[in-house]
Amino acid sequence: MENEIEVIVREETGRIDKVLNERLKNHSRSQIQQWIKDGQVSIDGQPIKSNYKVSQGDKIFIRVPEPEELELLPEDLQLDIVYEDDDVVVVNKPQGMVVHPSAGHPNGTLVNGLLHQIKNLSTINDVVRPGIVHRIDKDTSGLLMVAKNDQAHEALAEQLKDKTSLRKYVALVHGEIPHEKGRIEAPIGRSKVDRKMQAVVEGGKPAVTHFQVLQRYENFTLIELQLETGRTHQIRVHMQYINYPVAGDPLYGPKKTLKGNGQFLHAKMLGFTHPKTGENLVFEAPLPEIFQKTLKQLQEKD
């Protein structure tokens, strides 16, 4: 079932997403942009893009899907909440935990745990992703920012888009990287070989990753990475692309690798401007125990 909203342009000018944001006070800018992206906004039966310039008399139709019915149950997962105030939460996600429910993971996710521990979460995303501003992969551990209200969500999402937030990762990769630092700029899109995977492809979305060597071991290198963009599996794809795949990675790494619980990749540092106070906040999370243990074993081998 869908509802339909009709908006007739009177004297407004400019981009359609801005005009709709002014007219539809009960809907957030992010929600309007998502409708446009999903092809649910049309004029004369033709879906339009967000940069469409409106004309006087335009009749804009918006198909609003009914919220999907999904029972989201709070679960006591004893999440590691690093920081919390009235607007934002920073959580240290353990390796092996999915961020939000999906067909294959209806429960046991970060969202289920958040619903138990946090009183309020933003409503901008669909019903299965309350509060979730950005994601990290199931087998990647580390820091995530979560929004407790829609205003905070929009502000944090804008920082991600404008590349003003700080996200640093630590990864253990195969091979000994000879140089001290590097910059990988290669577009990422869905793999033409395997639809479950991402790959560096012509016409993909721009993606930039910076890395710096922290420690070299026999056949492995520990690196720190900083993201400029946040594409799906970006670090894992980029490191495979330059032939230094992340150790333990079941999708992008070699079969013979270090024993662990998936890829040795940890979101260790997260920084952003507080959406209400304007304060610059930076958080850091220690490496998981299995990661520390593996590094110690590699150090003892050298």
UniProtKB/TrEMBL annotation:
SUPFAM superfamilies: Alpha-L RNA-binding motif, Pseudouridine synthase
EC number(s) from the headed UniProt entry: 5.4.99.-
Classification via InterPro entries: PsdUridine_synth_cat_dom_sf (IPR020103), PsdUridine_synth_RluA-like_CS (IPR006224), PsdUridine_synth_RluC/D (IPR006225), PsdUridine_synth_RsuA/RluA (IPR006145), RluA_PseudoU_synthase (IPR050188), S4_RNA-bd (IPR002942), S4_RNA-bd_sf (IPR036986)
The protein's enzyme class: isomerase
Reactions catalysed, as given in the entry: a uridine in RNA = a pseudouridine in RNA
Keywords: Isomerase, RNA-binding
RNA-binding S4 domain ranges (all copies): 14-78
Stretches assigned to coiled coil: none
Record Pfam families: PseudoU_synth_2, S4
Homology family: Belongs to the pseudouridine synthase RluA family.
NCBIfam families according to UniProt: rluA_subfam
Function: Responsible for synthesis of pseudouridine from uracil.
PANTHER family per the UniProt record, alphabetical: MITOCHONDRIAL RNA PSEUDOURIDINE SYNTHASE (PTHR21600), RIBOSOMAL LARGE SUBUNIT PSEUDOURIDINE SYNTHASE D (PTHR21600:SF44)
Protein name per the record: Pseudouridine synthase
Organism the protein comes from: Candidatus Enterococcus moelleringii
